[in-house]
Amino acid sequence: MPGMTGCWPGPVMTKRFLFREHLHRLHRALVQSGYSVIGPQVKDDAILFAPLDHVDDLPWGWQELAGAGSYRLQHTAGKRAFAWNTGPQGLKPWLFKPEQVLWRAEHTEQGLHFRAVEPTPERLAFIGLRGCDLAALAIQDRHFMDGPYADRFYRAQREQLFIVAVNCGRSAETCFCVSTGDGPEARSGFDLLLDELDDGYLLQAGSDQGAAIAAGLPLKKATGKQLARARTLLAGARQQQRAMPSEAELAQLVDWLDHPRWQQVAERCLACGNCTSVCPTCFCSRQDTEGDIQNRQAGQVQRWDSCFSEQHSYITGKVIRAEIRHRYRQWLVHKLATWQQQFGRSGCVGCGRCIAWCPVAIDLVEEAQALLQDSPREAPS
């Protein structure tokens, strides 16, 4: 599993340097180790993760301009492949798939026959994940793998991942991972970690698998100037960010379930579910039974769902959260407050995707701040 420690060479966190012209050697080493490489590319006017055939396909010189309800790319004519922060994807679609058949049934001469669908994991190596993505992965790991009923599809694919993370050298206007403690520097959960500089990459291993890959690369000793430049970039990325209220403050949101702000945001919200689709930690799902036209075969299919869906709260003839204000309240209070009771932390990793990809520009940070600032000082009795 990613995150295992090893010896390479000396302390596992030692940083070495890989010149830019040798980045293809990292890609080749992953392929030769049996991985299908997934990396960021410019597709459909966004940065998307997709099979990466060559490092030339990385988004060289591209970065995003993100704001509330706004996302577009600009070419800076620079020489960097990781000058962007996020796109609409994280790891979630590859591990918790938007659609997964759980079991099938068919009529046979011997009667109704049920069979489980077995996981078919692939050896996948991701290049370009950020600190917020790894924090989201840790949350999803706890949900899908901890406890007595682990998701066997998630677990099977999770065990086949190799992660090359990249520290952020800048922050978008929507980023607030410093507030959640999840970036802009990746601290754990990676096999290899890169800091991108003008002429190449500082590289460090975070697992035995990462150390094995790194051992075959033409690495040089990192200079003090290179290390200082990486620290400067990280410091700049931190300073560019906005601030979310603290987790202790967010926990108070459960006291303001009748706040008028819920109705105000509901008058704008479309209940489209974009925020939950792009969120790297949301895990709501539903199950549908599908059959063929002759009713001879059927399958039980798990699909992504959203707490913004009216039917998501349907229980025995009644929709519990029929109004949009109740659905938005459910999402925000669970994500930022009651999630802390479940996982010991907020369910938000500060990536800002929900802000950028909201079609009506609802800003999660702005809403949380407004709720807390406008609330009475003392909770109602």
Unreliable spans: 1-12, 377-381
Number of strands: 16
Arrangement of strands in the largest sheet: 3-2-8-9-10-11-1-12
The portion of residues assigned to helices is 25-40%
**Separate helix tally:** 13
Can you give the mean pLDDT? 91
User: Mind describing the biggest β-sheet?
Assistant: 8 strands, mixed
Q: Per the principal axes of the C-alpha atoms, what is the gross shape?
A: globular
Quote the distance from N terminus to C terminus.
48 Å
Topology order in helix (H) and strand (E) letters: EHEEEEHEEEHHEHEEHEHHHHEEEEHHH
How would you explain this protein's 3D organization?
With 381 residues, the chain is an alpha+beta fold. The protein folds into two domains: 16-239, no CATH class; 247-374, no CATH class. It has helices at 23-32, 92-95, 131-145, 152-158, 177-180, 208-214, 224-239, 247-250, 261-266, 274-278, 324-343, 353-356, 364-374; strands spanning 16-19, 36-43, 46-51, 62-67, 70-75, 99-108, 111-116, 124-129, 161-166, 192-196, 200-205, 220-221, 285-291, 297-304, 314-315, 318-319. The protein has an eight-stranded mixed sheet, sandwiched between helices. The chain has a four-stranded antiparallel sheet with strand order 7-6-14-13, with no helix packed on it. A two-stranded antiparallel sheet has the order 4-5. A hairpin with a 5-residue loop joins strand 13 and strand 14. The longest helix is centred in the last third of the chain and has 20 residues, at 324-343.
